[in-house]
């Protein structure tokens, strides 16, 4: 039998065909996404209809490449970019383009919701996590404030992966993991917060599906979709957000292993058996997509910085790694603050990227390349320390995302974070995790009470050796980290005040 793992990300939809028994990938394909052009600064939108078209294109291509028998396909699992807002009318049609996770045009709406909930401490008291600008909640209020006619037509609110599940099954569903990233759920009880919903509009309880346990499937593939490919009865798993699916795809479903993603955003997450609430609100205590919790630090800036310097220097991925390898640690005094799109952690939504320490002697391509990779990693260091202050430890970070292909970058990150890093054999962790969850849901549906850790233990394998931190370089980066933090704290007085507050929780 075959499981289909689908990852609908910011840039493309990726499809993997995975063997039920061995976990071997039998075929793969992807189809690109386009952004809505001409938007104001800090806006980021895509048309949901494009996601379904990309899914169908990539699925057809993966089946063709693999020569798999469509009759062997038994289950689908969908991973989607978190926090997006897909507004639907009564017929389930998109009212307008979806606002994405990295849309930060809703700063005022986020502040309005926080104020209505009693300030940052009130938000954490009611939700169990802070309310980041990128979360779905502020996007819903933005629609109400800026497009009242569209808000009036709003009948259903879904996240990107839920919209794809709707396309596949015809069912309006939502599971704990992705729902926990809306800013509308009390993550401790895994129920919608009545106070958060009321802070936006009294209609919201009727617009959202009740969150369900991720072991509960989303439904069965619609005959019109199944018939197009020659499938039989196909179960569609609950699916989840991309961070939740990447955790499954890297084996991060029990304590001791963490996932670091160097994709469009940069994240580090750890499995937790109980809610790990951060009183400072910087660590998002998300639910995971297995039934536990997934405390996570998310930075808005990772591969965007690497991509920007590649364009500037006219290098490909291999070229940027080679250039950075030529430079010594510290890039001869250049420090890069990677806040090209504002920042979520630390809380700097209106910051911008900055190079410090440029001189006529050190302004060379190799130093710029290394400074960018160091800056992104130093920013993640702040979040990694915050995670560890909550008692979340891991002896190994499993890397995913496009940056996991850059061994120079992984070496820099290992030294800066002071933790060993490895990469899984299957680099498309979100799509692979979606396929593993599909197998899990399928077997549970047939009364086979298998644990998802049993599946990841069999299927998720490390590629090559561990990348160990070098003690001398790690010590140097500890000093550089102090300078990085000092420069960051000078960007906005409000950040300095916030850091003074949050430092009380760092041990």
Secondary structure layout plus pairing:
Blueprint: E1 2-8, E2 12-19, E3 25-32, E4 45-46, H1 48-66, E5 73-80, E6 86-88, E7 98-99, H2 107-116, H3 119-127, H4 136-146, H5 148-153, E8 156-158, H6 160-169, H7 176-179, E9 185-186, E10 191-192, H8 194-198, E11 219-220, H9 223-229, E12 235-236, E13 240-241, H10 242-249, E14 256-262, E15 266-270, E16 284-287, E17 293-299, H11 303-313, H12 317-326, E18 335-337, E19 354-356, H13 365-389, E20 394-400, H14 407-417, E21 420-424, H15 429-445, H16 452-459, E22 462-467, H17 471-489, H18 493-502
Parallel strand pairs: 1-5, 5-12, 5-13, 14-20, 20-21
Antiparallel strand pairs: 1-2, 2-3, 4-7, 6-8, 9-10, 11-12, 14-15, 15-17, 16-17, 18-19, 21-22
Helix pairs in contact: 2-4, 10-15, 11-13, 12-13, 13-14, 13-17, 14-17
Can you offer a commentary on this structure?
By secondary structure, the protein is α+β, with helices and mostly antiparallel strands. The protein has a domain at 2-241: Nucleotidyltransferase, domain 5. The protein contains 18 helices and 22 strands. The protein has helices spanning 48-66, 107-116, 119-127, 136-146, 148-153, 160-169, 176-179, 194-198, 223-229, 242-249, 303-313, 317-326, 365-389, 407-417, 429-445, 452-459, 471-489, 493-502, and strands spanning 2-8, 12-19, 25-32, 45-46, 73-80, 86-88, 98-99, 156-158, 185-186, 191-192, 219-220, 235-236, 240-241, 256-262, 266-270, 284-287, 293-299, 335-337, 354-356, 394-400, 420-424, 462-467. Helix 13 (365-389) crosses helix 14 and helix 14 packs across helix 17. The longest helix is centred in the last third of the chain and has 25 residues, at 365-389. It is globular. It starts with a strand and ends in a 5-residue tail after the last helix. 55% of the residues are buried.
